[in-house]
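A protein record pairs a chain with a discrete description of its three-dimensional fold. The following entry can be read in just this way.
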Amino acid sequence: MFERGSRYEAVPDATHVAEDGRTIRYKTLRIIPPAGGATLFTVRQDERLDRVAYATMRDGRLWWRIADAGLSLDPDALVAEPGTVIAVPGPGV
């Protein structure tokens, strides 16, 4: 359902059987672990999280790990203001 490396890859699946007998598969709640071993990154003009992820982790698809570390509901807000310092999680976090 989700590609390898997705933030939902390790989230357990669950099943619900509706009253009409339909089986509905879904993902359980994804708990965001505390960021440990994070490094700091200073946001530049016109920055994007995928670029930060590529510069720091060599994979732009891992932008969601930075959003999780920043506990942000709006990931773009983390890089909206140049000069802001954001946490980039270390490997395996």
Q: What stands out?
A: The chain has a mean pLDDT of 86.
